[in-house]
Predict the 3D structure of the following.
Amino acid sequence: MMQTRLPKAQGLYSPDNEHDNCGIGFVANIKGKPSNDIVMRGLEVLRNMDHRGATGADNSTGDGAGLLMQIPHEFIVDVLKLNVGPKGKYGTGLVFLPKDELEANVCIEALTRNIETEGLTLLGYRDVPVDKSAPGEIAKTTEPIIKQVFVKANLELDALERKLFIVRKLAEKEIRESNLKYKDGFYQPSFSAKTIIYKGMLTPDQLRDYYLDFKNEKFKSAIALVHSRFSTNTFPTWDLAQPFRIVAHNGEINTVKGNRLWMQAREGLMKSEVFGEDLKKILPVIQPGKSDSASFDNVLEFLHMTGRSLPHSLCMMIPESFNQKNPIPESLKAFYEYHSTIMEPWDGPASMVFSDGRYIGGTLDRNGLRPSRYVITKNDLIVMGSEVGVQTFKAEEIKEKGRLRPGKILLVDTQLGIIIPDEEVKDQLSRRNPYQMWLKENRMMMKDIKVKKRRPSSIENFEMYSKVFGFSKEDMYEIIQPMSQNGVEPTGSMGNDAPPAVFSDKPKRFFDYFKQMFAQVTNPPIDPIREGLVMALTNYIGSLHSNILDENPQHCKLIKFTEPLLTNTDIGKIKDLKDEMFSHKKVQMMFPVKEGLKGFEKAIERMLSEAESAVDEKKNYILLTDKIVSEELAPIPSLLAVAAVHHHLIKKQKRMQVGIIVETGEAREVNHFALLLGFGASVINPYMAYAAIDHIVKEGKLDIEYKEARKNYMKAVNKGLLKVFSKMGISTLRSYHGAQIFEAIGVSQEIIDKYFTGTTTKIGGVGIQEICQEATMFHQEGFKEDNAPEPFRFESNGNYAWRKNGEHHAWNPETIGLLQWATRTNDYEKYKEFSRLVDEQNKKPSFIRSCFNFKKNPIPIEEVEPIEEIMKRFVTGAMSYGSISKEAHEALAVTMNTIGGRSNTGEGGEDPARFGTLKNSKIKQVASGRFGVTNNYLTNAEELQIKIAQGAKPGEGGQLPGFKVNKIIAKTRNSTPGITLISPPPHHDIYSIEDLAQLIYDLKITNPRAKVSVKLVSEDGVGTIAAGVSKAFSDVIIIAGADGGTGASPASSIKHAGLPVELGIAETQQTLVLNNLRGRVKLQVDGQLKNGRDVIALACLGGEEFGFSTSALIVLGCIMMRKCHMNTCPAGIATQDKSLRKRFIGKSDFTVNYFKFIAQEIREYLAEMGFRKFDEIVGRTDLLEVNKEVTNWKMKTVDFSKLLYLPKEAQDVDIHNTHPNTQDTKDHLDYELIRDAKKALNGAEKVWISKSIVNVDRTVGAMLSGEVSKRYGEAGLPEDTINTTFHGTAGQSFGAFLVKGVTFRLEGDTNDYIGKGLSGGKIVVVPPVGSTFKPEKNIIIGNTSFYGATNGEAYIRGVAGERFCVRNSGAKAVIEGTGDHCCEYMTGGRVVVLGKTGRNFAAGMSGGIAYVLDENGDFDYYCNKGLVDLTPVEDKADIKELQTMINNHLLNTQSTLASKILTRWEEYLPQFVKVIPFEYKKVLEEQKLKELKRKLQLTEDDPSRHE
Amino acid sequence: MGDPKGFMTVPRIEAGYRPVNERVYDYGEVEQTLNENDRKLQASRCMDCGIPFCHWGCPVGSKIPEWQDAVYRGEKAEAYYILHSTNSFPEITGRVCPAPCEKSCVLAIHEEAVTIRENECATVEQAFEAGIVVANPPKTRTGKKVAVIGSGPAGLSAADLLNRAGHLVTVFEKNDAIGGLLRYGIPDFKLNKRVIDRRLELFVEEGIIFKPNVNVGVDISKEDLLKKFDAVLLAIGAEKPRDLPVEGRDLDGVHFAMDFLMQQNKVVAGQTIKRGTKITAKNKNVLVIGGGDTGSDCVGTSIRQSAKSVTQIEILPKPPKKRVNNNPWPYWPDTLRTSSSHKEGCERRWSLSTKRFIGQDGKLKQVELVKVEWNKDENGRWNMTEVPGTTEIIDVDLVLLSMGFTQPVHEGLLSDIGVEYDQRGNVKVDNKKQSSVAKVFAAGDAEKGASLVVHAIEAGKVAAKNMDAFLREE
């Protein structure tokens, strides 16, 4: 039967998780002259970004494409012969209708009725002519009936537009609330007197062919705004195609859950001058069940319709960053700050193009992570798109080439025929009202409120409180103490092997039932340290958010907090405030413990009604407190209390009127604060944490005073919070607030629905009774009498380090002892003893997988495939040489090569001496740091693994401290010994799914024989991501459990981010099967796997390859010290210390034994279950039965049915990998290059080649370079052996992984990722001959250029986008101007910038040198001086180096700028600034000193010889 | 953790023993002690492992990393209290425990374990010296009465915890002094009896009632016992020694080790031994049969009694010096152990079986020994065979049988009460240490068979916890 939209939620699949990323763009005639040419160009732009979209399982259904344009009046009048009256006096729009004729009629009737009741005149409906053969097979199944509606009214344009809006909303609502079976088939792409939208479930080409209207010459518009979609699913959803009514969005709104809730909460308070009584007709603002982009569009349209201009509304929703690191006027900062009190940012990567028919423009979010390039021609055409080259123009036609910049708006007014620059737009906005004054007079800063009384940090009955709130010894001395000492969260290592809270028979804090979510693939996490300029922890309480539709000073009558933690004195200040605008009501988070469950439930009800009445009593904030603990009163878990109150008030539309202040003894670690804020708290006073610090100071365990300790602690919390936000790609607390970026594990649906509405919980779990019981257990502990007490001491509960009688850990003395014993003595019986113990202990339970039994149907074991076949499925995890020692790393490689499995280099390169030997790691990892990722490295792999996330710290970067980087590690990572190496949180070439597709393409082009795998971490929605990844042609997808190991991670990330692997793999399997994508990818799993049973259970859930890391290390001697991060591994594994490495007692034989044992055990299971081949059990959840005996007191309500769900599609489609995921690359330009360069490849003879190039030619040069690597290895060819000149606009990744001996010269411009992973080659880019614009003022190459370059040269005559030379470790590059974040994370090489740079220059730069021409003398401001020193260029060697590079630039590019500088050298030299990292300087000086010493020793006068 | 790199920079240093030629002339403790600073450095070697195998290996679950850290930081009280929280007698285990913790220490993989036992002993001694260890009587009394029968480590451990819980505890001891095996089984050169007395004084102050010289079942009837007390703990040990029923066993000069050791301890305690009952090694050729700890104690005691020669034989083969493959870390190592007594001059021989004792006029003169071989049969069981032609006869005046203990003495109290036994003849208990008889519990060697002091302490803890719950339930 026809399925109109996304499938309903089933099993672990939820349509809420669908993502899409895209290509967007527009074409416009600046003077507003309509033409069919503009429409055609719009369609062409789309086609030229085809590679950014995707197709479904049938390889012909597009994910969606569309075009927004002005209403083609001439066409309507002349061609359609409709009597619509004059332009602007009628409205029109397409209507999608259900295929079912009866229902279609009902929809039409409803629409007509609403048109009429709103007083408009219906002119009629037209059947829109379409070519039914154009869409793909899947799209055809849901193709709607498409009609066009025409109405008219004698209203002025804006009034008419509002009426049309009302009609659309009313019709929408009516159908949505109807009983129609196919109501999802009804959709109105637009209904306007200004614009019209054509779109569908189509590819760009199909869009052009589908709507026959396009072909008519009279079909004219001055603007064409287009969008093509890359979705993570293959479900036919015509309505999710973009553009929406006003915007097309490339990106993702990370905080959309919160934004939607806040919007809902605001509706009760709205009053509109323009709509008056009609306002309620257009509510709810947000149409339920649509995408994040659609919700964004809803709100934007609403704000615009209710009276704000488009730029104004956009600046409210995606404000640019306005902290002190941003060079914008104070008045504009005030504008943003004022509006931040009205609306929280819609946070996430966004490139938006928008239009209301007159204005057309684009904007980027504050991070600017999506590319947006534009070209303006001399004949008033503007073309903007995700890529440059989507429209080609002659060189002499071009007036200007530019790009959108983070937070900036480009606006074209087609009526006035002008382009309004960002400064002017913003200037106008900031003058609308005296915002600065309003803020000054109303907004109160926390620190400005006078202190009446200091509140002490200590608390009476500290011991009792600490027990009631469950403070353990680990909390005190492993969490709070280090935070108070060092101002950062403690670091841990290895994975989490303790059971999820619901599986633990110990009482747990309610916080522990929630896991942090994080960004992967479809949007990037942020680096909160190096890119701190976009981050903010500001929040407000007070008279917030009255009517957002009006603008007055009252809005900012509030208290501003610069951080979310309040001291005791601060909260005292608030309590003492007597201002009528700042009144509060106290609500006790306490329950009468003796009344048990009834008392608990009653207390929650009391809280809710008290909170509600606080609003009715016009209080400005609610103070939730649990400070009055007594034998009778026990605290309600603070998270439950906060979320319950927050959601209750939202439901009652009373949330916006109050702030929620939480005074709780429970919160102590970063995750607790993140949870409270994420579920609605505005500010928090953790009084017990302060009391604990006070206690530690008084004990003498901190050598600083309380005040400083508390400051450090708060700093650590702030930093930690920023890290938690940024792992989801969220920059500000304002947007994180209430955004619920968490999922629950082990909480019942009932609790979620009631108090945590909208949060995901997949296996059910604790209900109100269990929560009450846990709270009671902690309370009892606090009031237990000890008859002969010894002095008070905290006890460890074994959460982090194992303790007898503490929390269970799957790795413990027994399991480690037996495993080492068995594998060292090659004793299978001993192994079985180990394996039985693991199974036994797991049934406590520890893992979800241990809750199942296997169905039996025995066959003789001889019939089962041999262990050799099974062992091919085994891989070892990605552990870099650097995080583990050479001995351990090589032992694993030898093991896997011996058994036919695959080992993994990890992020850190590999010594080329290992290539081709038994020590070669078959899997070569490509991670965000790109350490050691050279062409030769890629060429020597069987599998290339893109690490998107890591289980122990998903969404976070890493850091290898300088002291760990010895000579050999530096060499394999193309760096200098002693220099800190930072891995950024995101891959800077993966901000979206289409970017990932591009990187996969890059890798497959570079090494066509290698498979590509993508490593994801289990979380809600990972299945949907995986679907997108498989559509991006990945061969293998790894679903890593969040329990995976690490060499160093913040302790809270190890414990609190991500989900167990079972949920991830099951969701992925189900989603891929639903999409019929499962057959084309292999699924690999890892996450604390130990034995055959683990493998079988995960195979039934969908895994077909299996990763082992911790267990393999344990076999090699690891004893779970959990001190990897300290370089003191006593087993000689996680260390580079020579003396410690001597302690390594592992042998590859041991690991070989281990894998043979597991394989043998798997065979035994297969025989027992009745299968001959492993493949036969993959995805067979029906072979798993829930073992009812595995349970505890909390688990009674846990339900695994979603996990074990087998979609009905499984009957018809593949449920395991059956065929390769082949991408057609036969048209790739490199095949020609390889042919033309034959002589060079075979005999190193020089060749010259010339080619024209367009933006669809991507990754040019990588395959050619791969051929060079294959023949000549790391060394490459002699310089300039293969000389190629290109003309035109190059596609993404131009010259990626180009090797030594290959020189690319491009006359034209390029898109993003030029010179990615440059491996010794040379790239020159110059504007084409005939250009008249000034190269040094115009953008010529895109974003993220020379990312991870290891060697080579680049000369670019023009300006680059953001992140020029990011993570460069060896290339020398000259450029004439750059965007933000230039030289970010650079560890080596040289960069010369002959012009202006953007903000945040040199962030995270730990090596190499940059020279910047600072003509304005303000470079200082733009540079992030965290790691670098700025000095004049004075050293002789430096001057020579700089001069030589500029000279080379001149020779290669004929740059007039370079020529000017060189000829006036004396004048220019003093204006150059040398940027050098401190660390690098030190290393260089040490090297010099060493060299000096060596020379001295050669002379007779060595002083050391005369002792 | 004191110093993350402590184990890399500080070598393991043992305090060592007093010189042999000095110590064999007295019964003072042979072990020396480090100065406070060196002790801290030794504690700094602890790595605070993610999995503290020591803590796992320790039968009482001592939180070793936690108090090592406290020792390193000079937090004497904290270190003591952590120690004391899992063990009522750290001063005793610190002296006599064979320290399974050290065998499981991660640093033991490379044979450089933290000196946990010595650190323990030093920690407690410092705590006593600093006046940290004081009586801590229970705040209230529950009104319940408990009888603990037997005052060895199991009984005392239970008595302490039950008393702290507020029950009124009476400890019965058939001997004239409290302490059981601690008192009379362990020689003073290993455990100065003042150490026991010091703890007992605290117990008395805390309200435990001690009744030495009371043989329950004889001096108090079983009925009285069960009537007067709400719960009874049998901690009577496994006193039945394994005998060697060969020809000549009844000759004068063949004794059980415990009789010999007990006598010496009483002498050191200042008591006089009745004429004619005295067992002495003076000027004798002594043969100790049995290679365990008790045997070793017999060696040291014989040497101090000026034996002419001391030989110790063991029926099992000589253990390897280092761990063999099949006996890996972190498990208890079956390796050769050499005590301070062994170093004082004795001959140790292995794989020898005793065929017969040869006497003259009822007095022991010689012993016939034979070499044995151990081989596995097809079921994997070890079988012993005598090696033909290896018989030898040696001159011996005193034989001390120290081949372990078989079970608790059934006669008297146990059979009176009527407890069930397990297969090995020990008192049968459930996991709550409860016997088959209502309100009667058992702990230590009596239910487990002869074992280490530290196991007895743990058994006492478990029993006390369950008895407390039992008493509260009533």
Chain B has a mean pLDDT of 95. The longest helix of chain B spans residues 453-473.
